[in-house]
Design brief:
CATH architecture: Alpha/alpha barrel
Radius of gyration: 19 Å
Mean pLDDT: 82
Largest sheet: 2 strands, antiparallel
Structural class: mainly alpha
Oligomer: single chain
CATH class: Mainly Alpha
Strand order of the largest sheet: 1-2
CATH topology: Glycosyltransferase
Order of helices and strands: HHHHHEEEEHHHHH
Length: 242
Amino acid sequence: MNFGDQKYLDLNTRVTLRLRDSSMSQDNAHARLLPHVKMRWSADQAAIIYSIWLYDTNNGTTYADEPLGRWLAYMHENATHPETGLFITEVMGTKKYSEQPRGCSAAYMIYYMSYFAPEVAKSQWALFKEYMGYSMMGLKGFREYLPDFEGEWTPDSGPIIAGVGVAATGLALKTAAALGDHEIFDAILRLASIGTTMLGTAEMIPKIGDFAKIGTDLLASSIILAAKTQWEFPREVELGTP
């Protein structure tokens, strides 16, 4: 039974089939993202599978079954970091950090997996907390890179402060909400509240204000609001289940 708006169903179907076919056409089960771009991101493929899975959920189809099965098999067999068991970031080996787990990637990927592969998501979340979690004076966050890997910040990671990634920690707020992890959700939300207050004050300081707005912009605020909404309302609301 379809719970969605029928107005764009034909378009949604074409997009879904394109995503499925693009995923299945690749030996590594990762769809090509952009023309002439070699990189294939594990987290982005998780988002693609989630999109197909969501279509299936709303329309009673099974388009996600094959790409999901192939992707999970590939990740377990070819794209798992041997020392930690975490899924790696990029499967084409194009970057120095490709075969490393990264905080922003893991948090993003586990969030989507919590829908279509909940048991795998729970396992990866436990490993993510073990190997990339960071705690100091009651405040908790997540590393962008493992402690023994020398990595730099990227546009995806945002600032990295004492090894803790802003994006890794912020995105983990939604992941904690999706997995019902009360401890991590409350801890990150408390940290986010402190950071937002400090940055809000910094916005009034000349030359620093523009930089401070990065932490209070629409994207940052949206992530926090999305996480709070998911925490307050069961995910069946998000899926359109009556």
